[in-house]
Amino acid sequence: MAQPRVQWFKFSSPPNFYDLSGRLIPWFGGLAAILFVAGLYVGFVVAPPDYQQGDSYRIMFIHVPAAWMSMFLYVLMAVYAAIGLIWRVKTAEVMAKAIAPTGALFAFLCLWSGALWGKPTWGTYWVWDARLTSQLILLFLYLGYMALHGAIEDRQRAANASAVLALAGVVNVPIIYFSVVWWNTLHQGASITVTSAPTMETVMFTALMLMTFACWTYAIAVVLWRARLELLERERRAKWVLERMGGKA
Amino acid sequence: MRALLNALLSLLRRDLLLAVRRRQDALVVLGFFVVVVSLFPLGVGPDPQLLRSMAPGVLWVSALLATMLSLERLFADDFRDGSLEQLLLTPQPLPLLVLMKILAHWLVTGLPLVLISPLLGMQLNLDGTEIAVLMMALLLGTPILSLVGAIGAGLTLGLRGGGVLISLLILPLYVPALIMGAGAVDAVMYGSSPDAHLSLLAALLIFTLLLAPWAIAAALRIMLD
Fold first, then answer.
1. DSSP A188
2. Which range has the worst mean pLDDT, A2-16, A74-88, A191-205, B209-223?
3. How many CB pairs under 8 A join A and B?
4. Backbone angles phi, psi at B5, to 5 degrees
5. Is the pLDDT of residue A168 over 70?
6. What pLDDT sits at residue A184?
7. Is A148 on the interface with B (CB under 8 A)?
8. Using N-to-C axis directions, what is the helix angle for A155-169 and B162-189, rounded to 10°?
9. What is the pTM of this model?
10. CA distance, residue A191 to nearest chain B CA (Å)
11. What does the alpha-carbon distance between residue A176 and residue A178 come to, in Å, rounded to a whole number?
């Protein structure tokens, strides 16, 4: 049997993952910084004010990527949790745990920026609209996941138990995603879909995309970093850790 | 097949018998439900119109909280005296055994809530059809609460402060049932048909019935590892 050129499973072994992530983090971190600066510049300086909302619409440049990331990260966390639970891949368990705080941060950012945008536009910080409420639930799901992980002392058992919880909660993500469509409440529908051209100006769209990729690269860098530390802590008695730490432990 | 049926029925009988012997456990849940609902008129004022419009939500949220109260005990007693481990060791499929335990739990705690709800609905000025829809919604919804709640009960088994943790884990997962259950009563209150909400609730019940027992079985195996 021919060997595939890149052996992906190689990186599921903790030392290989550790080395690879160590090399990737500076790149993604640096890229995130550049993209954030570029995105904020285009979003705040280049893009014109909206004809309806004036300048307040600019909050969307952080609000929308945060909303996307918070939902996507939950699904990703559940996928890693499932891989860890089914195939007992240690690195996947670590990744699932590492994703949760970043996902919670984005869910919080989304709610926070939404509230700040809501005051000038809707005249209120908060309404019990389907989208807002379901996003709040998503934040609670992240908090519950982290709380359960923290409450169980044994690492292996904590990883398995919270994996079951992550999988039970993933049922809610489609509800959140489609809530704008299913319940016709205050929150506006999507301006950007895969199937049609965006209904906004190119400059705004560019800024939004820059910010989205900035959030992506930031999330990758931070999650890998957290996973790395978690892995070190978990494997602190393993030989590869001792080798990389210069023999002192 | 015969042995499986026997095992399931005897497990159900055992759990119900235990519940009958310790009647106060089930009564506390029912009492909690009644007291919480009765506190609302005292808290928000006795305006009949206001109470009526709040009734679906109040009844549903109180049912949620009452269910939470009983969840901690669902596996805890069996865990403490070791019979849960025996259950895991039997050749019978664990998801089915778990389903029986949940059925017993629902018969003891969920069903009484459904049966007493008309009285509380009348106290909050609901009329005949609304009460019928409320009972229907609770009948479909309370098994969901037991099933989903059991996942949380399994996951927090033997943890310090497990009771508080359950609420953080499970209440977000209760939201769909809450929205559709209260929505059904709301719909009939505003003169439209509750069918859509009730159908969704029934679909959710079937979905939960299919998947939750496996999740609970997995949770129990992990926590008793």
1. -
2. A191-205
3. 59
4. -60, -45
5. yes
6. 56
7. yes
8. 0
9. 0.86
10. 26
11. 6
Task: Spell out which residues of chain A touch residue B222, defining contact as CB-CB under 8 Å.
Answer: 157, 160-161, 164
Shortest distance between the Cα of B174 and any Cα of chain A, in A, equals 10
Confidence of residue A194 (pLDDT cuts 50, 70, 90): low
Q: How much is the pLDDT for A191?
A: 61
Among the listed residues A209, A216, A202, A221, the one whose alpha carbon sits nearest the alpha carbon of residue A39: A209
pLDDT given for residue A199 in this prediction? 63
Q: Which of B168, B171, B176 sits opposite A147 (nearest CB)?
A: B168
Tokens 């560019």 found at: A206
Distance from CA of A86 to the nearest CA of B (A): 11
Who among A134, A161, A171 is closest to B222 (CB)?
A: A161
Residue contact A172–B222, C-beta within 8 A: no
CA distance B221 to B94: 9
Nearest CA-CA partner of B27 in B70, B58, B85? B70
Which tokens sit at A5? 């050129």
Asked whether B136 and B198 are in contact (CB, 8 A), the reply is: yes
Q: Which helix (H) or strand (E) segment is A71 a member of? A: helix A60-87
Q: What is the ipTM of this complex?
A: 0.83
Residue B58 has pLDDT above 60, yes or no: yes
